[in-house]
Amino acid sequence: MELPLALSDMFTKTAILPLLSLLATMSTGHPLSDSAPSSQPKPYTINVDPEFIEETRIRASQFRQTEPIDAPAWFDGPPTSKINDVAKYWAEDYDWSKVQDGINKNFSHFYTTVPSPGGNYGSNESLDLHFIHQRSNRDDAIPILFLHGWPSTSLEWEKIILPLTNPEDDSQPAFHVVAPDIPGFGFSPAPKAPGLGGAEHATVFASLMEQLGYDRYVLYSTDLGTVVAMSYIVDYAPRIINHVTDFYMVFPTDADTARYAANKTTPEETVYINSINSFLTNHSAYSAIHSTLPLSLAYALNDSPVGFLAWRYQLAWSVSDVDYTFDELITDTLMLYIPGVYGNIRSYKELFGLDSFAPKVPFTVPTTVLQFGGNSHYAELANFNYVPKDWVERTAKVTYFKRHEKGGHFPALSQPQWVIDDIRAALA
Ligand SMILES: *[C@@H]1O[C@H](CO)[C@@H](O)[C@H](O)[C@H]1NC(C)=O
Ligand SMILES: *[C@@H]1O[C@H](CO)[C@@H](O)[C@H](O)[C@H]1NC(C)=O
Ligand SMILES: *[C@@H]1O[C@H](CO)[C@@H](O)[C@H](O)[C@H]1NC(C)=O
Ligand SMILES: *[C@@H]1O[C@H](CO)[C@@H](O)[C@H](O)[C@H]1NC(C)=O
């Protein structure tokens, strides 16, 4: 299928450059069009074209500053002083090659091709996937597939992969970890057509696990990955040992809303509903754009790496209780900027919706729900992750439930040991 002009132009300027050096046989057109499709995973070394990294650094150095107004920090968006400083750091000090060496050295990377999942996906072409596949030495290790969301990539799991594969204590369960980049994120090229929804993503990752020879495995999900999991646990139920999630959304029913209006909800229900209302009313503009007209925004974000950093930083700040170093902010931004911003922000259009977080019936898969609170730098969002347990049980067969007082939306980064302990306890 020929790419529309605007899209192919964007590929030429962004994705194709970093991917060029990966593929000796590649010439022009789509990044992977000249590489022979391979249904056999191949070891892979991340090697983003240094010219692209330099071009991006120059863009950061030419960032046009915004004049602040006299308002509290984070009132309208990330503080201008912080963004000016991170732009300067990007221009003068940030070192992608060091980061890339760490990513390559720490984990075993692979690349493969899976068939078009069909369904609503508008292309018959296969999809290319980058993934980390870290195998345990233990014969009794359990396979586990990690599904990240936006604005993350496979790097969200960087602190828990190695401890899960080889626990120090032999009495603890061990895992073979599979951590893909969702298409359009990190080093997995974006889908070539609309329609890669939750069910289609599930088929893509089920194909990946088949290639790796894993018949039954644990599924770990967060954020938009949870939307994929909601199809996965129904369409591929026999394959899932347990669905572990740190982001399980249940929205109020009409009956809940009526009880809320009549002041009949429990205090726990009330603060949860208030947090959800606040998020949907005052903190979710990004998802409204991503899920309606993503290309209209992608031009600007793809043209300004610092502007894109500020855009994703706002969300990361809103949903987490940690702050980020400049290195973390830039690396996390690059991981979504390298493949091209359009391909990952538009995933909301395929995955996000209030009903997309509920599984189709019947749901039979044993489910582990982990709740990490202190969910935000904004007090009004603090209870966003505290879905009442009896609400969770409406849409899941809960086998393990744990609520932590902090950790926010990226607990595998902010409280990795708690996540490791919970996964082990849930599967023990
Ligand atoms: C790689 O491992 C080193 C040493 O454990 C650590 O400092 C670094 O943050 C890791 N990098 C990534 C990308 O995980
Ligand atoms: C996919 O292939 C089938 C069979 O060749 C064809 O009927 C269909 O139109 C194709 N769909 C797309 C989106 O190319
Ligand atoms: C619920 O409580 C609020 C605030 O205490 C009050 O204003 C409102 O009238 C109450 N609603 C009902 C239906 O009792
Ligand atoms: C949204 O923000 C406005 C302005 O700060 C505030 O008045 C309103 O209560 C907020 N809405 C919700 C649902 O929290």
Query: Please, what is the average pLDDT?
Result: 91
| CATH level-4 homologous superfamily of the domain at 102-282 and 349-427 | Alpha/Beta hydrolase fold, catalytic domain
What is the level-2 CATH architecture name of the domain at 102-282 and 349-427?
3-Layer(aba) Sandwich
* Molecules bound to protein: 2-acetamido-2-deoxy-beta-D-glucopyranose
DSSP helix count? Answer: 19
Radius of gyration of CA atoms, rounded to a whole number: 21 Å
Structural class: alpha/beta
Record field, number of beta strands? 9
What is the fold-level CATH name, i.e. the topology of the domain at 102-282 and 349-427? Rossmann fold
Low-confidence stretches: 1-36
Strand content: 5-15%
- From N to C, what is the helix and strand string? HHEHHHEEEHEHEHEHHHHHHHHEHEHH
Query: What's the level 1 CATH class of the domain at 102-282 and 349-427?
Result: Alpha Beta
Approximately how much helix is present in the residues? Answer: 40-55%
**Terminal residue distance:** 47 Å
Main sheet specs = 9 strands, mixed
Q: Give the CA-based shape.
A: globular
- The neighbouring-strand order within the major sheet is 1-2-3-5-4-6-7-8-9
InterPro entries: AB_hydrolase_fold, Epox_hydrolase-like, Epoxide_hydro_N, Epoxide_hydrolase
GO molecular function, one term: epoxide hydrolase activity
Family: Belongs to the peptidase S33 family.
Organism: Didymosphaeria variabile
